[in-house]
Design a protein that fits this description.
The protein has eight helices and five strands. With 237 residues, the chain is an alpha/beta fold.
């Protein structure tokens, strides 16, 4: 009997990473979910990640603690203000890398995922990066993922001694939010378990005006679906 292949799935508790986990499960992988307590201000995502991992029967859900907040430089790890906009169309027109970018975050996360893959003898990593409906982060592009696959082969025992090639799956790379949500709904994702907002209030209610909220709301609206997330009074939700 053939054992299903193991995969490490980077899981933030957000819409994209949750859909990515659902896809990995649907494709027959044994999923090991990896989340990070990295000094983020919106720590509600860790509880959401726990619920999502449980809902999709992850083999294990590991939360690794690192402190990217020590370096600052991002509105997600410091007291810098989170930018707000009036619509997702405004987000589309933004130029440059926004202040919500966390320096080297995906590079650090993929490094940890690679280390766990070596221990698990797994050859697959799933990451929910997206280069279409996104905020312009440089570590969410196809060329970045391709470079990482090359690095993984050069940097590991599995690659150098055993001739194995680690594959980084980014199934959402070319999808807009509506397509991501539609696929998730097909796979039984309860998006009420997820959080997306960059600036939720103390009760975890989404702000409705940050880039992440606006792109999420547009995705649901284009499908004619109600977003199950709870929004702050007076917000777009």
């Amino acid at each position: 009997m053939t054992t299903a292949p193991a995969a490490v799935v980077l899981l933030s508790g957000g819409l994209d990473s949750t859909t990515c986990l659902a896809i990995a499960r649907a494709e027959g992988y044994r999923c090991y979910a990896l989340s990070f307590d990295y000094g983020q201000r919106h720590r509600l995502e860790l509880e959401c990640a726990r619920r999502v991992a449980e809902a999709f029967g992850a083999e294990r859900h590991l939360v690794s603690r690192i402190d990217l907040g020590a370096f600052g430089g991002s509105a997600l790890t410091s007291d810098l203000a989170v930018p707000k906009s009036g619509s997702a169309d405004e987000v589309d027109r933004h130029e440059g890398v926004p202040v919500t970018y966390v320096p080297a975050r995906n590079t650090v996360f993929l490094s940890f995922a690679l280390a766990w893959c070596e221990v698990l003898q797994a050859d697959h990593i799933f990451i929910g990066v997206n280069a279409l409906d996104y905020s312009g982060y440089p570590d969410c592009r196809p060329e970045y993922i391709a470079a990482w696959e090359t690095l993984a082969t050069l940097a590991t025992r599995a690659g150098t001694e055993e001739g194995r090639k680690l594959r980084i799956h980014a199934p959402l790379m070319d999808w807009d939010k509506s397509r991501i949500i539609a696929r998730g709904v097909e796979l039984g994702v309860d998006y009420g378990l997820t959080t997306t907002c960059y600036d939720p209030d103390g009760q975890g209610h989404a702000c409705g005006h940050c880039d992440a909220c606006l792109l999420r709301l547009r995705g649901f609206a284009r499908l004619g679906l109600a977003d199950p997330a709870v929004y702050q009074p007076g917000s777009r939700g």
